[in-house]
Structure formats: C-alpha cells, structure tokens
Amino acid sequence: MATETQAGLSGHIRGVTVTTLACLGGLVAAVVAGVVVGTHPEAAGDTRSLAFLVAAIAGQYPVLKAIGVDISDFGAKDHLYVAFMTFALWFITFAILLTSGVAL
C-alpha cells in the first residue's frame, strides 16, 4: 500500500532508486574505463577496465545507505540484481565506446 514504507522509502521508490543508481554506476564506470584504458581496439582485452566495474558495484552500497535505502535487508537476489544491472550497462556502454572509436 502507499502508506507502508521501509526506512522512509516506499517499495516502488526503493526499487527505482536502486535500479537508477545501478544503471548510472555502469555508465560512469564505462566512461571512466574509456578515459583511463582507452577506446582503441586493444583496450577491449585490458582487464583494468574490470576494476572500474568492481569499484562501481562496491561504491553503490554506501551511496544507497546515504540516500536512505535500507541495505541491511538486501538478500542474495538484491545483490545479484545490483551487480548484474551495473555490469549490463557497463558492458553495453564500453562496447559502444570501443566500436565507435570515440576519443575520450
């Protein structure tokens, strides 16, 4: 119901917040990887870009906690969701940057 809340956020707002932050985290991780590693074809094999993905996944939890999402009740499904959504947006964005040859 609309009157039920969890730590100040309704279930819908909580879900939208987690999804939005995961997607933005993946986008930012891909752009930063493109700047640091590069966008030339050889950069596709550079494993340093994965470090930005891992940092984006790990860095979301303090941000979620700071904006009022109760992460103490996250289960395995929630953690996998955050990791997958971040990975998916990172992968798509980094692939676009690599194939288009954009100079960052």
List keywords for this structure.
membrane; 3 helices; 104 residues; mainly alpha
Topology record:
Blueprint: H1 11-37, H2 48-66, H3 76-100
Protein described:
The structure is a single chain. With 104 residues, the protein is mostly helical. It contains 3 helices and no strands. The protein is elongated, with a radius of gyration of 16 Å.
Count of helix runs = 3
Radius of gyration computed on alpha carbons? 16 Å
Q: How many strand units?
A: 0
Biggest beta sheet summary: none
Termini separation:
46 Å
Strand content: under 5%
Written as H for each helix and E for each strand, in order along the chain, the element string is HHH
Shape: elongated
Identify low-pLDDT runs: 1-7
Mean pLDDT: 89
